[in-house]
């Protein structure tokens, strides 16, 4: 049994964020019970009460938002928010844990028969890799440009960015996607890329570079990332440009 506490839910944006964290924590605990390996340090999670082989591979999940809606206007969106939160929670799991859950079953338990249509009618199952439309997955421009992706921060803007990032995560998980004409595009070496990805913190840079002769400093330079990188490169310096798009999600 996994005990979970759900916060009171006031608005749509806060509701999805909080539920996503709650469901992600549940999935991590379920993987821990199954004896999954933790990707960050390769430790093995073990079940303290029984062996991983004895743990049922079926997770019976109830919607955490039941009875906790302080904003009753959100009731009509209950099913849509549930599936969105669960989908994003699964996407945010490390790839190793996502693969672990492929061998498990998640059963959604709806306690009230009257609420079943709200959940069943809003569930869309994608049988294969994501199919792009005629827009090729682009976000919608606003006022003739895409500045809103970097600057706007309203709940609807955050939801649109979240939807766009979810398409990317789905393509990565499926290791490919389909164009609007049905042609398949394969993403190769995803597992190798994930396995060889390293998190490097600023406080560790000196140690990684050999210590002596290197110093970490932070300073502001006017211009876009690429403009600053080009200016440094033109001076003979080595420059790396970091895409901060994920910071806006």
Looking at this protein, list some descriptive labels.
249 residues, mainly alpha, 3 domains, 3-stranded mixed beta sheet, two-stranded parallel sheet, 5 strands, 37% helix, globular
How are the SSEs placed, and which strands pair?
Blueprint (H helix, E strand, L loop, with lengths): L11 H22 L24 E4 L16 H15 L2 H7 L3 E4 L7 H5 L9 E2 L16 H4 L3 H20 L1 E3 L5 E3 L3 H6 L9 H4 L16 H10 L15
Helix pairs in contact: 1-2, 2-6
Give the overall silhouette: globular
**Helix share bin:** 25-40%
How far from one another are the termini? 32 Å
The computed structural class is mainly alpha
Number of strands: 5
Radius of gyration: 22 Å
Mean pLDDT: 77
Main beta sheet, described?
3 strands, mixed
Structure explained in plain terms:
The chain has 249 residues and is mainly alpha-helical. It folds into three domains: 1-125, no CATH class; 128-197, no CATH class; 198-248, no CATH class. The chain is built from nine helices and five strands. The chain has helices spanning 12-33, 78-92, 95-101, 116-120, 148-151, 155-174, 190-195, 205-208, 225-234, and strands spanning 58-61, 105-108, 130-131, 176-178, 184-186. The strands form two sheets. Strands 3-4-5 form a three-stranded mixed beta sheet. Strand 4 (176-178) and strand 5 form a beta hairpin. Mean pLDDT is 77; it is low at 39-50.
Brief overview:
The chain has helices at residues 12-33, 78-92, 95-101, 116-120, 148-151, 155-174, 190-195, 205-208, 225-234; strands spanning 58-61, 105-108, 130-131, 176-178, 184-186. The longest helix has 22 residues, at 12-33.
């Amino acid at each position: 049994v996994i005990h979970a506490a759900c916060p009171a839910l006031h608005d749509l944006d806060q509701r999805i964020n909080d539920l996503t964290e709650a469901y992600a924590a549940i999935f991590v605990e379920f993987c821990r019970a199954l004896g999954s390996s933790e990707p960050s340090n390769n430790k093995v999670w073990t079940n303290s009460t029984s062996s991983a082989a004895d743990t049922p591979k079926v997770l019976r999940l109830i919607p955490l938002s039941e009875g906790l809606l302080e904003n009753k206007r959100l009731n009509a969106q209950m099913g849509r928010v549930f599936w969105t939160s669960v989908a994003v929670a699964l996407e945010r799991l490390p790839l190793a844990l996502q693969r672990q859950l492929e061998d498990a079953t998640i059963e959604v338990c709806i306690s009230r028969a009257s609420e079943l249509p709200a959940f069943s009618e809003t569930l869309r199952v994608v049988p294969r890799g994501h199919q792009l439309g005629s827009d090729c997955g682009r976000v919608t421009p606003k006022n003739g440009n895409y500045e809103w992706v970097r600057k706007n921060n309203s709940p609807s803007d955050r939801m649109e960015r979240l939807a766009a990032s979810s398409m990317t995560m789905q393509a990565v998980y499926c290791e490919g996607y389909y164009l609007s004409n049905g042609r398949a595009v394969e993403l190769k070496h995803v597992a190798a890329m994930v396995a060889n990805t390293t998190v490097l913190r600023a406080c560790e840079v000196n140690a990684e570079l050999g210590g002596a002769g290197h110093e970490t400093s932070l300073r502001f330079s006017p211009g876009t990332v690429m403009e600053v990188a080009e200016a440094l490169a033109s001076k003979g310096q080595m420059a790396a440009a970091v895409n901060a798009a994920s910071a806006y999600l």
